[in-house]
Specification:
165 residues; alpha+beta; Trna Endonuclease, Chain: A, domain 1; six-stranded mixed sheet; 2 helices; 6 strands
């Protein structure tokens, strides 16, 4: 399991790399500017984002995290006949199917809890369909989950669960 804490109050991630003090997804409002004329409307805050926008911000953050780990992103938001794969990546010689779950609160549970046994079965089927249609230089295949929590202050925490299936 690889955890990246991007909230200033969280400790360093388990990967040994220091965590950034804060990470803001594209399009999120930063601290209000000093007094003066405003040239453009302020970007939307986390609580004002639609579910689609929030999910896209989480996927962008997950892809950036994977690339920072040295992975090659092969495909994003790949639509297949029986569903969608959020991210297909190569981690050295391992092809990784990545499911990204983003939440702004834990009212319905932690993001990774949304990856149920049924969802894992669907992801395995999608992985098989992807392998039938594409040739990628890999030796192993696995499924990972990246859970993203969007904090109301515009920062995100990310937890990368490897080999969930």
């Amino acid at each position: 399991m690889n955890t990246l804490a991007t909230h200033p109050e969280h400790p360093e991630p388990s990967s040994g790399r220091p965590a950034p003090t804060a990470v803001r997804a594209p399009g999120l409002a930063a601290d209000p500017p000093a007094a003066g004329p405003v040239a453009a409307p302020a970007p939307r805050r986390v609580r004002e984002m639609s579910t689609l926008e929030l999910g896209r911000a989480g996927e962008d953050l997950a892809a950036a995290h994977l690339e920072a780990c040295g992975w090659q992103i092969v495909e994003r938001n790949l639509r297949l006949r029986h569903g969608e794969i959020d991210i297909v990546a190569l981690a050295h010689t391992t092809l990784v199917i990545v499911e990204v779950k983003t939440r702004r609160s834990f009212v319905t549970g932690v993001p990774q809890a949304a990856v149920t046994p049924d969802k894992l079965r669907r992801l395995r089927r999608l992985a098989g369909a992807y392998l039938m249609d594409h040739s990628t230089p890999h030796r192993d295949v696995r499924i990972d989950v990246v859970a993203v929590h969007a904090h109301l202050d515009g920062t995100f925490s990310l937890e990368h669960l490897e080999a969930v299936s």
